[in-house]
Write a structure and sequence with these properties.
Layout (H helix, E strand, L loop, with lengths): L2 H11 L8 E2 L2 E2 L2 E2 L1 E2 L8 E2 H17 L19 H8 L6 E3 L3 H12 L8 E5 L4 H13 L4 H4 E4 L10 H11 L3 E7 L11 H10 L3 E5 L18 E4 L14 E4 L46 H17 L1 H24 L3 E3 L12 E5 L3 H10 L2 E2 L1 E3 L3 E4 L8 H14 L1
Parallel strand pairs: 4-15, 7-8, 7-9, 9-10, 10-11
Antiparallel strand pairs: 1-5, 2-3, 6-12, 11-12, 13-14, 14-17, 16-17
Helix pairs in contact: 1-12, 2-9, 3-9, 4-5, 7-8, 10-12, 11-12
This protein binds pyridoxal-5'-phosphate (PLP).
Pyridoxal-5'-phosphate (PLP) binds next to helix 4 and helix 5.
Length: 416
């Protein structure tokens, strides 16, 4: 049986639960085989109506839109607490939708990076996303410290592409007394490796460090339990696996044990004040007893509306069932690519152990990955290149079919 026929059979048994709720770019009269949901998730059909509703409310109510209706703008972000909480495994009051991801990292580091005495260092991965590197370096420098001295960078062992949990824990046990904050990407953007978040968090906390996670590639991709894992803080964007739209409003998590504390340093604004009292005549912030305490400005409603529409889809299906389908779909792509690997045409960077990855498979090519991605695009397939030589394929369990996967790999075979 051809790969395509097998794929169709699999689709009949294991349908994408929300395929008909998303809009696909077209290649001629066919839907693009879209395996770039790790870069920008597709548009939910409900996003347009959600934005139009707010435009209509603005036209019809103007200022009164802040206070009237089912979802007044002053309370709009709160509607995301429950769906977002279920997606990242948090209590509703522990999450807030605000700003962009890098901005949220800055706000959280302002609170949680508090170098003092011998405990001044930050532990992170050598191959972190550039924005995270810049953000952390700027925090260290802003405290009058030297980033080249204070930042400990962990890299994979010689000849390996991913980090080992045991090596991270060993570093924590050896240097933990000097580490103020640990900040890793939950799923590495380049290798697709999912770190053992609970084990690393527990080891770091046992050494007295505060622990934050960048979940840009983890939120909406893998099952998370931030509250139960005792993570101190986290931030993620909503335009990748969460389909919130380009540059959409990001998410942040602060563990319950840090909520309601007026003594924590933070950059404050009126939306961090308790919602009942934002216009109060106060000399200092009385922080909201929720993660809203890290909000500064009133939120961008037009950019929040699609985030809410999209989060309701993901939360409605639920991460356990999405993650289970994701394993089947990603495993299928891996199987289809295997002959290329055996023929020496590419190397897989992503762990083959399904417990150590999400929906993304990263491959190192022999040559320019951008050229390969461009050629695949001409065949109606969307994949993504990280220069110079990494190709990323990411089937979304929400909307991708097995047929999408088979078409994508067939295009890769043809191009290579
Ligand atoms: C996508 C991504 C970002 C993007 O940052 P923005 O502030 O949303 O522009 C940052 N960090 C990581 C790890 C990412 O994957």
């Amino acid at each position: 049986m051809s790969d395509l026929a097998t794929a169709r059979e699999l689709d009949a048994r294991d349908q994408a639960p929300a395929r008909d709720q998303f809009l696909f770019p077209m290649h001629g009269d066919r839907e693009v085989a879209y395996l770039s949901g790790n870069a920008l998730g597709l548009q939910p059909k409900s996003a347009r109506a959600a934005v139009l509703t707010e435009l209509d409310r603005w036209a019809g109510l103007a200022h009164a839109g802040h206070y009237e209706g089912r979802l007044p703008w002053t309370r709009y972000a709160e509607a995301l607490r429950v769906p977002m909480g279920s997606i990242v495994g948090a209590l509703p009051q522990e999450t807030v939708a605000m700003n962009g991801l890098s901005v949220n990292l800055h706000l959280l580091l302002t609170t949680f990076y508090r170098p003092s005495g011998a405990r001044t260092k930050v532990l992170m991965e050598r191959h972190a996303f550039p924005s995270d590197v810049f953000a952390i370096r700027s925090h260290v420098a802003a405290r009058g410290l030297d980033p080249d001295v204070e930042i400990l960078l962990l890299e994979p062992r010689e000849g390996e592409d991913t980090l080992r949990t045991a090596d991270i824990i060993d570093t924590l046990e050896r240097h933990g007394q000097q580490i103020a904050v640990v900040l890793f990407g939950g799923v590495n953007f380049l290798s697709g490796e999912l770190l053992d978040i609970p084990a690393i968090t527990a080891a770091a906390r046992a050494m007295g460090c505060l622990v934050g996670w960048d979940l840009a590639h983890a939120a909406g991709n893998v099952e998370l339990a931030l509250h139960d894992w005792d993570v101190d803080f986290a931030a993620w964007c909503t335009y990748k696996y969460l389909n919130g739209g380009p540059g959409a409003v990001a998410g942040a998590f602060v563990h319950e044990r840090h909520l309601g504390r007026a003594d924590l340093p933070r950059l404050a604004g009126w939306y961090g004040q308790d919602v009942s009292d934002r216009f109060g005549d106060h000399e200092r912030l009385m922080p909201s007893a929720t993660a809203d305490a890290w909000q500064i400005s009133n939120p961008a409603i037009l950019s929040l509306a699609p985030v809410l529409a999209a989060a309701e889809i993901t939360a409605g299906i639920g991460m356990p069932s999405l993650a289970a389908r994701s394993r089947r779909l990603t495993g299928y792509v891996e199987e289809l690519v295997a002959p290329l690997m055996e023929a020496g045409r590419l190397d897989q960077l992503t762990p083959s152990d399904a417990d150590r990855r999400g929906a993304q498979l990263s491959y190192r090519l022999d040559g320019s990955s951008q050229e390969v991605v461009d050629a695949m695009h001409a065949l109606g397939v969307s994949a993504d290149a990280r220069v110079p030589d990494v190709l990323r394929l990411s089937p979304s369990p929400l909307y991708n079919s097995y047929e999408d996967c088979a078409r994508a790999v067939a295009a890769l075979v043809e191009v290579l």
